[in-house]
Every structure is written in structure tokens, then in C-alpha cells.
Amino acid sequence: MDKQITEFTYIDLEGTASLTELNAICHTGSFIADCPVMEDGEIASETQLIEIGKYCCYFVPGSDVITGDLYNLIDMADSISGDCLWAVERLVDEDGILKEDYSLRSGVLFIDWFEIVPQYDELKEKAMDVLIRVLGTSASAVGYIVDYDNSENELTGPFLGKFDFVMQETNSKGSLWLRKQV
Fold first, then answer.
1. Whole-prediction pTM value?
2. Alpha-carbon distance 143 to 166, whole Å?
3. 6, pLDDT greater than 60
4. What pLDDT is recorded for position 46?
5. Are 99 and 149 in contact (CB under 8 A)?
6. Topology at the third CATH level for domain 15-29+54-180
7. Is 1 exposed, middle or buried (0-12, 13-18, 19+ CB in 10 A)?
8. How is the chain split into domains, by residue range?
9. For position 20, what pLDDT does the model report?
10. What is the mean pLDDT of the chain?
11. Rounded to an integer, what distance in angstroms lies between the CA atom of residue 182 and that of residue 168?
């Protein structure tokens, strides 16, 4: 019998942040939901927490929080991945500094992967909302690449559009979606 979800509970952040060599922050973790316990084919009064999905994001800061020195986001994104570089390139000037339109906040959140177990697909929107609100709070923009080769597990344009992501560019492998934070 399929498990029934009571509600999306939280995003697991415990022990998931690490610094890359150039000071970007890698966040990996899980999405957790509250699920009723089944006893003899019926829902019992207690619930249990279960993992319904996983994510990996990189926060690419625009400046050093202590000194205020501006970072070259191109170098930082390039050290993470080609996809992260593709997302960040559109948001920076020729020196790799966040463009003025994006300078009200402190960096860029790049969602490298986002997965929800298909059985809990109805919680995908809530999980994305929480991810953006928790990890994207100080970001000037949030980026995601839809990978055409892995389309069955990927987020789609219509789904991303619900969160104000706008497709910026496509190539033969995927499409770049950005969400400007306000």
C-alpha cells in the first residue's frame, strides 16, 4: 500500500553546507515529510518522518562578508561546474561582478539537482518553495538547468514558471532558467 503523506515537514540542512575552494557554499540535503504509520491496513494515530527527496545547491557569494571585497563569480562558478558557469555568466559584468540589477542581494543560488520520489510528487511544489525561501533568501537570483538527456527526473519549464523562473537560453543539451529575487 502506498504511504499517505500528512504534510511536508522540513528541509534537512543539518551538516550539509561545505565551502568550495573559492568560497562558494555547497548545500546538500533531504526533503522530509510526516507520514502516517499503517497498522493492520489502517492509519494509526502516530506518524513517522520519511525522506521524500534530495537536493544539491551552490550559493555563489558576490562578496566577502567580512571585508566587502567583491568576488569574481565567473571563476567561482567555473570551479563548480559548466552548468553553474552558464547560469552565472548572464548575471555578471565583464569583470565577473554581479550586474547592478542583481546587486541588492549577496550572490547567486544555483540548484544543481532537485529530486522528489515520484510517489510523493504532490509535494514537489512545496519542497521547491521551501528550498528557495530557505537557501535563496540572500540570493540575487536562483538558477536551474533543465537537462534534456535526463528529462524523466528533471523539473520542467511549466513547473519552474510557477516560481517565476524564466527561460533565458537553450542549447542542444538543456535550457537555462533564472529567477530574479525581489
1. 0.84
2. 10
3. no
4. 76
5. no
6. Aminopeptidase (3.40.630)
7. exposed
8. 15-29+54-180
9. 73
10. 83
11. 18
